[in-house]
């Protein structure tokens, strides 16, 4: 197996080096470079052993170590910040020069620019080389476009961490895109001069804008426009939240992410177009060259995301293999695509889109042939439908653990949405490309626009209908990192055993059993969990007590419940919280955190930073106004309410000047009043 896929064998140690560096291990750069030099010299020395029986083993081990070290060095180079960063971040006013690579329009806010900085300093006189990609926010950047070389003045800042536990980690998200700093520009001006890169960026941006205008001409419906932009140009910025949710719940979100499906359709159209040309014996080279030209033009036009990059590189490897007369192996092509992309951008490995893209293709390549053999329908329509079903199952088998881990849900109707969405997406993509080509012909443009509207309406309506069914999605699923890794290890064992051992079915089920045991153990721990959390959103704080799969939230009357619900979504998803009960207190209520013997902190209606306290024995709630009526009877001013997970525990109340009432949390997530209401 290894001999047939040499690139897969070389990819593994390189991935290991990237993962080791991302895990937090610290290797000084000088040691890494010295080790790489020593290994390179050793590889040259091993050439003297060629022909010896030990040569193959030592040479293979040295190559593996060399690739692992290269992974470590490239990761370090991708995340390393220049030495001047600290001085720039602490300065009130800094200056920088850079090239605008992307411009993102934000609804209700100013545009945001991604700038490749070439020089920075505290002023014009001390500008030094500073090669970093940063986010630039500016109140007035209407005239700045991708490809412009700009001079900007303002303040460098680091990107703040998430406010709440298990919230979306925006710091890590930007880090894996090569961005670790942001800049708030007070002044900005476009500098004269062009380079080949700036010209290319401007031409691509102008081409995307032309295609956008042509594609949307004659299509007034916003929902239809946003779907067409996402499907054909890879622009999902205009997608409505309801549409995103509908496609995700129906298991068809991958249709809106330009990926191998779209690249394959483009390659098929290009192959048919160039295959019909009367060019005699040169038909095959021309067809392959034309297909590659169209594929890479489409890749650049759609923004070159991880999935479309992977697909374009893999199709390129396969087509070049056909041109050279060799038989391209899909696993080797997949490994070549991953190796080339990660060598160019090492941090792609840690982007969720990159991971899901490669896992989906791996699942389709391995499981689709096995599943198709289970049934051989005679009807061609049934055969096509069965093949699509097997494709969806193969992709879901390898992406399911990662999807559940990150999103806490699993679409049950992915097979049905695949039957509907894939044919419609193929028709939409083909019709959209024809509209771009024949937009100058008014009759053809109007006819194609009508067809696009009808197809888009059918696609949107189908996904909205599927997502409205109560059994469309399994929500509230939780997988710990250990359980997720164990599930992938089990899948890997099954795949390797199927290839190598004829009796693989008799023993490869053990890893799946271990993964199931870990998942059950994780569920049991979650049922027994008990913790207090302080969550913040828009400078407003709430107190939450988690017990099992339920949460009890204490909040003030002026709390923005929508913002808080969004803020604690990651926490509830990761810990498996299924039910939340809200307890609203009068404005001005102060929550005092009391530990075993000392007060740990205070949080009120406005709290600047988040905090987590686990294992606290007592929480106190005090207010200057009467307690709410739902307590059973209104208390006087200054009364304290003691919340205790277990009433039987001893509580210290020496510092309580006012009378207190003790409440304990019931198993159903509510409050239960003990028999002795007064605390003596």
Describe the structure.
With 680 residues, this protein is an alpha+beta fold. The chain has a 6-stranded mixed beta sheet, with no helix packed on it. Strand 12 (590-594) and strand 13 form a beta hairpin. The protein contains 21 helices and 18 strands.
Count of runs of 4 or more consecutive helical residues: 21
Structural class: alpha+beta
- What portion of residues is helical? 40-55%
Annotation, overall tally of beta strands: 18
- Side by side, the strands of the main sheet go 13-12-15-16-17-18
Q: What percent strand?
A: 15-25%
The biggest beta sheet, please?
6 strands, mixed
- Low-pLDDT ranges: 595-615, 629-638, 645-680
Mean pLDDT, as a whole number?
76
What's the end-to-end separation, in Å? Answer: 76 Å
Shape: globular
- Radius of gyration computed on alpha carbons: 30 Å
Spell out the key features of this protein.
18 strands; globular; 50% helix; five-stranded mixed barrel; single chain; 680 residues; alpha+beta; disordered C terminus; six-stranded mixed sheet
Secondary structure: elements and pairs:
Layout: H1 6-22, H2 29-46, H3 55-79, H4 85-90, E1 94-104, E2 112-121, E3 128-138, E4 149-158, H5 170-175, E5 179-191, H6 196-216, H7 222-233, H8 241-249, H9 253-256, H10 260-275, H11 283-301, H12 306-323, H13 330-344, H14 352-372, H15 380-407, E6 409-411, H16 414-437, H17 442-468, E7 473-475, H18 481-500, H19 509-527, E8 530-537, E9 540-547, E10 550-556, H20 561-567, H21 569-575, E11 579-585, E12 590-594, E13 599-603, E14 611-613, E15 618-622, E16 640-644, E17 660-665, E18 671-672
Parallel strand pairs: 3-5, 10-11, 16-17
Antiparallel strand pairs: 1-2, 1-4, 2-3, 4-5, 6-7, 8-9, 8-14, 9-10, 12-13, 12-15, 15-16, 17-18
Helix pairs in contact: 1-3, 1-13, 2-3, 6-7, 7-17, 8-17, 10-11, 10-12, 10-16, 11-12, 12-13, 13-14, 14-15, 15-16, 15-18, 16-17, 18-19
């Amino acid at each position: 197996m290894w001999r047939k896929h040499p690139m897969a064998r070389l990819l593994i140690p390189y991935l290991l080096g990237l993962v080791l560096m991302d895990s937090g291990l610290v290797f000084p750069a000088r040691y890494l470079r010295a080790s790489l030099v020593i290994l390179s010299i050793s590889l040259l020395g091993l050439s003297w052993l060629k022909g010896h029986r030990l040569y193959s083993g030592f040479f293979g081990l040295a190559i593996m170590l060399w690739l692992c070290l290269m992974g470590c060095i490239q990761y370090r180079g991708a995340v390393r910040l220049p030495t001047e960063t600290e001085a720039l971040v602490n300065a009130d006013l800094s200056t920088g020069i850079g090239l605008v690579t992307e411009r993102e329009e934000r609804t209700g806010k100013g545009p945001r620019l991604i700038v490749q900085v070439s020089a920075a300093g505290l002023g014009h006189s001390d500008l030094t080389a500073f090669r970093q990609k940063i986010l630039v926010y500016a109140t007035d950047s209407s005239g700045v476009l991708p490809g412009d070389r700009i001079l900007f003045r303002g303040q460098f800042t680091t990107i703040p961490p998430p406010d709440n536990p298990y919230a979306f980690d925006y710091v890590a998200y930007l880090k894996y895109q090569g961005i670790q700093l942001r800049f708030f520009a007070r002044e900005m001006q476009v500098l004269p001069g062009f380079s080949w890169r700036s010209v290319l960026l401007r031409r691509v941006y102008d081409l995307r804008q032309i295609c956008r205008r042509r594609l949307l001409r004659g299509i007034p419906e916003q929902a239809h426009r946003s779907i067409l932009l996402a499907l054909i140009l890879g622009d999902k910025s205009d997608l409505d939240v309801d549409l995103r949710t509908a496609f995700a719940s129906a298991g068809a979100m991958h249709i809106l992410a330009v990926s191998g499906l779209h690249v394959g359709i483009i390659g098929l159209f290009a192959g048919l177009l160039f295959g019909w040309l009367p060019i005699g014996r040169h038909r095959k080279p021309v067809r392959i060259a034309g297909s590659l030209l169209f594929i890479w033009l489409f890749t650049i036009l759609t923004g070159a995301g991880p999935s479309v990059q992977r697909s374009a590189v893999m199709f390129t490897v396969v087509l070049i293999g056909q041109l050279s007369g060799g038989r391209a192996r899909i696993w080797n092509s997949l490994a070549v695509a991953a190796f080339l992309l990660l060598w160019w951008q090492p941090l792609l490995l840690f982007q969720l889109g990159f991971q899901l893209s490669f896992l989906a293709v791996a699942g389709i390549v391995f499981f689709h042939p096995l599943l198709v053999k289970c049934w051989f329908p005679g009807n061609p329509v049934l055969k096509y439908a069965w093949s699509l079903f097997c494709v969806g199952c193969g992709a879901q088998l390898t992406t399911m653990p990662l999807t559940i881990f990150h999103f806490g849900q699993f679409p049950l109707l992915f097979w049905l949405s695949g039957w509907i969405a894939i044919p419609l997406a193929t028709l939409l993509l083909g019709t959209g490309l024809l509209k771009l080509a024949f937009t100058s012909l008014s009759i053809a443009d109007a006819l194609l626009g009508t067809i696009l509207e009808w197809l888009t309406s059918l696609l949107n309506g189908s996904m909205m209908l599927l997502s409205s069914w109560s059994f469309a999605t399994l929500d509230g699923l939780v997988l710990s990192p250990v359980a997720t890794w164990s599930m992938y290890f089990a899948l890997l064992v099954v795949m390797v055993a199927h290839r190598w051992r004829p009796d693989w079915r008799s023993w490869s089920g053990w890893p799946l059993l271990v993964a199931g045991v870990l998942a059950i153990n994780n569920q049991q721990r979650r049922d027994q969990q008990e913790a207090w959390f302080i969550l913040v959103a828009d400078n407003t704080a709430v107190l939450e007590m988690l017990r099992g799969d339920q949460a009890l939230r204490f909040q003030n009357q002026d709390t923005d419940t929508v913002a808080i619900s969004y803020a604690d979504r990651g926490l509830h998803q990761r810990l498996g919280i299924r039910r939340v009960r809200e307890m609203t207190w009068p404005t001005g209520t102060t929550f005092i955190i009391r530990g075993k013997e000392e007060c740990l902190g205070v949080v009120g209606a406005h709290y600047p930073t988040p905090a987590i306290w686990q294992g606290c024995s007592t929480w106190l709630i005090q207010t200057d106004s009467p307690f709410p009526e739902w307590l059973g009877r209104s208390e006087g001013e200054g009364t304290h309410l003691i919340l205790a997970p277990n009433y039987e525990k001893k509580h210290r109340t020496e510092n309580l000047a006012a009378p207190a009432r003790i409440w304990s949390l019931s198993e159903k997530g509510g409050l239960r009043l003990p028999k002795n209401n007064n605390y003596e």
